[in-house]
């Protein structure tokens, strides 16, 4: 384990992160909210901590191994929760405890979108902007951003990229150099965010709301500067724009890169995972709209389709935007939407959850096992896009499923031991570990009604989900630390 190099990288990344405290200062001056001091103090504190970590090991120059990359990623995301909470702690508006401040920051960085803050419409613009900004940075991954910058500082980034990238196939690169890949991802991410912001603005949002909600939409984060979320605007055009860009945020950004570089939209339809993602969303949207119309929840099919589209895509991509109280929808619809968060979007997207490709692989593995029961001696490979999937990936996906459900069950039982009812407990863990936001029961709109102990459990669930189980669990195993 190359601990001095790990310390050096963590210090540098905290110094880089401290710079993100400066834009809210500009927002504070632009809107005259007089709330710039907490961000200036936070900038100095986080930068100072980064310097203290970096300075003693500033001359260390060694290659990172994959194990070192997992350690950097896991520890840095934990540090982000504390460092990102600093402005909330130093601010008197809103007044948050240490537990709530860390929860809010982790929720932002992990793009969960769950909140403990009420009265958002009355908060200073700088605080509101900061909440939107941290989820935008977390969407593509602060680590992936660092990969694009670390070579300038003489540090390779492949180990960090592998540890950070979501999905089971982590060796795929869009460009020959990993730094070019990271930069390409961020350029596409920024361009889509700008297009979304422009669409929101033309549809009637203010400039501040357009940028803030664009940050939420492409990061599939779900924070909003308004307590009512998108229902604040009650605008069908805004709902449509949100639905389209949430869907794009839930797609693999490698596909966006291929479609843009090759100027060929057919690149999407050639991807097996994207087709499964599209048809799953389309089927559930139409089914939900029909259910709502037949149940008489909305007066017309058009209105039913509008709300069904946004809510289904929002939950399926782990965004968590709301235009209506889906928890009050009839029948099994509320549970269905929460269960959708377990699947979520594609690998290589900003969405949380287990990813469509893992479910696709597990389904095809199940079909292959059924065939082997009839033909025990046959070699029946699991294929994607006509090519056999390596057994190593199949085994990795199976291990991921096992660890996911073990952790899910353990954390749910822990919340029930802390006094939460069954519906609140399982939906809170589902929405946190899948980085979605809205739940059922006591956590339908806010997590402010649960105890501090339960809040910490949910915070852990958000980090575990954002890092896709293994990086954090690895730190708890003796094998990881063994030479």
Features:
64% helix; 22 helices; two-stranded antiparallel sheet; mainly alpha; 483 residues
Strand order of the largest sheet: 1-2
Largest sheet: 2 strands, antiparallel
The gross shape turns out to be: globular
What string gives the helices and strands in order? HHHHHHHHHHHHHHHHHEEHHHHH
Distance between the termini: 7 Å
Tell me the β content.
Answer: under 5%
Rounded to an integer in angstroms, the radius of gyration calculated over CA atoms is 22 Å
> Helix tally?
22
Catalogue the unreliable spans: none
Average the pLDDT over all residues and give the rounded result: 88
Q: How many β-strands, per DSSP?
A: 2
* Relative helix content: 55-70%
What class would the helix/strand composition place it in? mainly alpha
């Amino acid at each position: 384990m190359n601990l001095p190099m790990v310390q050096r990288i963590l210090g540098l990344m905290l110094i880089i992160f401290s710079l993100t405290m400066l834009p809210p200062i500009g927002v504070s001056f632009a809107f005259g909210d007089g709330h710039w001091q907490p961000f200036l103090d936070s900038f100095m504190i986080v930068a100072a901590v980064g310097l203290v970590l970096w300075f003693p090991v500033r001359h260390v120059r060694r290659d990172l191994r994959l194990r070192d990359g997992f350690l950097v990623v896991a520890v840095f995301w934990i540090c982000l929760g504390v460092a990102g909470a600093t402005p909330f702690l130093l601010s008197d508006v809103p007044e948050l405890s240490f537990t709530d401040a860390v929860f809010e920051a982790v929720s932002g960085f992990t793009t969960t979108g769950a909140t403990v803050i009420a009265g958002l419409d009355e908060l200073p613009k700088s605080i509101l902007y900061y909440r939107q900004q941290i989820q935008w940075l977390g969407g593509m991954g602060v680590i992936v951003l660092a990969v694009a910058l670390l070579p300038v500082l003489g540090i390779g980034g492949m180990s960090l990229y592998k540890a950070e990238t979501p999905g089971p196939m982590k060796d795929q690169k869009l460009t020959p150099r990993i730094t070019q890949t990271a930069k390409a991802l961020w350029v596409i991410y920024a361009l889509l965010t700008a297009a979304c912001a422009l669409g929101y603005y033309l549809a009637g949002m203010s400039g501040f709301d357009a940028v803030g909600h664009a940050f939420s939409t492409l990061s599939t984060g779900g924070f909003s500067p308004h307590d009512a979320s998108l229902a604040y605007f009650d605008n069908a055009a805004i709902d449509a724009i949100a639905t389209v860009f949430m869907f794009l945020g839930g797609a693999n950004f490698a596909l966006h890169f291929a479609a843009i570089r090759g100027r060929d939209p057919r690149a999407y339809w050639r991807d097996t995972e994207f087709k499964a993602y599209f048809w799953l969303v389309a089927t559930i949207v139409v089914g939900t709209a029909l259910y709502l119309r037949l149940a008489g929840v909305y007066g017309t099919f058009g209105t039913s389709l509008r709300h069904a589209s946004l809510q289904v895509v929002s939950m399926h991509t782990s965004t968590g935007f709301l235009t209506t109280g889906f928890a009050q929808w009839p029948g099994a619809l509320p549970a269905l939407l929460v269960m959708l968060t377990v699947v979520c979007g594609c690998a290589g997207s900003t969405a949380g959850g287990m990813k469509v490709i893992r479910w696709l692989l597990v389904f095809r593995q199940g079909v292959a096992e059924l065939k082997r029961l009839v033909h025990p001696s046959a070699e029946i490979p699991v294929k994607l896009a006509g090519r056999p999937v390596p057994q190593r990936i199949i085994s990795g996906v199976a291990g991921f499923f096992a660890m996911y459900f073990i952790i899910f069950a353990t954390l749910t039982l822990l919340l029930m031991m802390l006094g939460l009812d069954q519906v609140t407990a399982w939906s809170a863990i589902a929405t946190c570990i899948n980085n979605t936001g809205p739940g059922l029961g006591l956590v339908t709109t806010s997590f402010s009604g649960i105890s501090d102990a339960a809040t910490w459990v949910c915070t852990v669930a958000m980090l575990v989900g954002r890092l896709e189980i293994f990086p954090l669990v690895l730190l708890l195993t003796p094998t990881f630390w063994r030479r």
